[in-house]
Design goal:
The chain folds into 2 domains: 6-256, Amidase signature (AS) enzymes; 263-429, Alpha-Beta Complex (Amidase signature (AS) enzymes). The protein has 13 helices and 15 strands. The chain has helices at residues 6-10, 14-22, 28-46, 54-69, 112-119, 162-169, 186-191, 233-243, 284-299, 313-323, 330-351, 381-386, 415-429, and strands at residues 49-52, 81-85, 123-128, 140-141, 145-146, 175-180, 195-198, 210-211, 214-215, 225-230, 270-273, 303-306, 356-360, 390-397, 403-410. The strands form 3 sheets. An 11-stranded mixed beta sheet has the order 1-3-2-6-10-7-14-15-13-11-12, with helices on both faces. The two termini are 26 Å apart.
């Protein structure tokens, strides 16, 4: 009989769960059963998991326990349960992407990110809710309905990886993966108080991730990246190292070695603080959280100063959105791409004076269903245009008791710097706190 209760296991960091399984302190079967019970308990309230693959998960757990008994070498996530946003292909599990016409579509293969987590020993529990075709700021669709925030059921977990964030925050999954083209990992992580990373564009393959046009890649959708979501930055860092690197299929994935965040010295790093982007001002609690984060980095020896990156990223994003709607001529689209190139260059020139930026993820904590703040995503969209890595981590709490994350942005291929700074903030300001659900 395990000495751990379900709640102990379901809110334990993924790295620690992997250790407990490897050292035979718990079995993978016990761990998967605990998470399945947790899903059964919380999912009727939050509606985050849309497909539960319990039988196969339990079979995989029994196989994981046999492998340990036989002395077979195992991966760092051996026996650890995970979920995945429903726009990732998953072998044998319906991948509906929130639309009725795909309600019975079952892929014959796994997305690369899913396959890599399985190869590291993780066990897939099921699929999580997303907006129709996997994109949007509210996790709601005609097929599966609306997902609720575990901190307040009247509020949204945002989108588009909202189901993924909600179930991880609620303890039904130890970790997961989502996709982000303008904030779709970062906003849900912020609304649910989680740790996450939108990686440098081209670091993690997007093979097997779908939208309304089917599979995509760097040429057709350079803003969208696959990224990890968890309850701690240490877990996010481990997941990044597992997920990164070319797969021989995604032609936009670059063979760049992922560096270890633990090797980054925070002392002496130059950090720009943008508390207000001039488009939509954060509320007082969010501003206070940004200032607390700046103070924490300064206390760790970083050189912190207020500074604003070049403007125009969100306005340009709106032009790109318009180009997807057949409203622009091909000549006009090329004009948008030229301005995109110019914006990326201007941002790189500006970044030469800085090691990282901290700023809000969103102007407020989680809002009520159907009441988004206009241009609230303006804090995340610019860094999808640049392709820079963005880590998010909980650093504060709203007056309503809701999580507030901070966004840490670093230069291209410096994901380890963003993660190191997020680790410092997590240690100083508390990080994830479980909801009462």
């Amino acid at each position: 009989m395990t000495r751990f209760g379900d709640r102990d296991l379901c809110f334990c960091p993924a790295i620690e769960l992997g250790r407990l399984v490897r050292e035979r302190e718990i079995s993978a079967h016990e761990l998967v059963e605990a998470h399945l019970r947790r899903i059964e308990q919380v999912n009727p309230q939050i509606n985050a998991v849309v497909q539960v693959d319990a039988d196969r998960a339990l079979d995989a757990a029994r196989g994981a326990d046999r492998a340990l008994a036989q002395g077979t070498p195992v991966g760092p996530l051996h026996g650890v349960p995970f979920t995945v946003k429903d726009n990732f292909e998953t072998t044998g599990i319906i991948t509906a992407i929130g639309v009725v016409e795909r309600a019975s579509v079952v892929p014959a293969r796994d997305a690369t990110a899913v396959a890599r987590l399985k190869a590291a020993g993780a066990i897939l529990l099921g699929k999580t809710n997303c907006p129709p075709w996997g994109g949007g700021s509210e996790t709601d669709n005609e097929l599966y309905g609306r997902t609720n925030n575990p901190y307040d059921l009247e509020r949204t977990p945002s989108g588009s990886s909202g189901g993924e964030a909600a179930i991880i925050a609620a303890g039904g999954s130890a970790l997961g993966i989502g996709s982000d083209s303008g904030g779709s990992i970062r906003d849900p992580a912020h609304f649910c108080g989680l740790a996450a990373l939108k990686p440098t564009a081209g670091l993690i393959p997007v093979t097997g991730v779908l939208d309304d046009e089917g599979p995509f890649g760097m040429m057709s959708d350079p803003r969208t990246q696959v990224g990890p979501i968890a309850r701690s930055i240490a877990d996010v860092s481990l997941l990044t190292s597992i997920l990164a690197g070319p797969d021989g299929i995604d032609a936009g994935c670059i063979p760049v070695r992922v560096q270890d965040p633990s090797g980054v010295a925070v002392r002496g790093l130059k950090i720009a603080v943008q508390a207000d982007n001039g488009i939509v001002s954060p509320d007082p609690a969010t501003l206070a959280t940004i200032h607390a984060a700046a103070d924490a980095l300064a206390a760790a020896g970083a050189i912190v100063a207020e500074a604003d990156p070049p403007a125009g990223g969100h306005a340009l994003t709106r032009e790109i959105w318009d180009s997807y709607a057949d409203e622009l001529s091909s000549q006009a689209v090329y004009g948008v791409l030229r301005r995109w190139d110019a914006y990326r260059s201007a941002m790189l020139r500006w970044l030469a004076d800085w090691d990282a930026i901290i700023c809000p993820v969103y102007p407020t904590a989680a809002h009520l269903h159907g009441r988004p703040i206009r241009d609230g995503v303006s804090y995340t969209t610019p860094y999808s245009l640049t392709g820079w890595p963005c880590a998010v981590v909980r650093c504060g709490t709203s007056t309503e008791g809701l999580p507030i994350d901070v966004q840490v942005v670093a230069g291209p291929w410096r994901d380890h710097v963003a993660l190191a700074l997020a680790t410092t903030l997590e240690a100083a300001l508390g990080g994830f706190r479980a909801p009462s659900i």
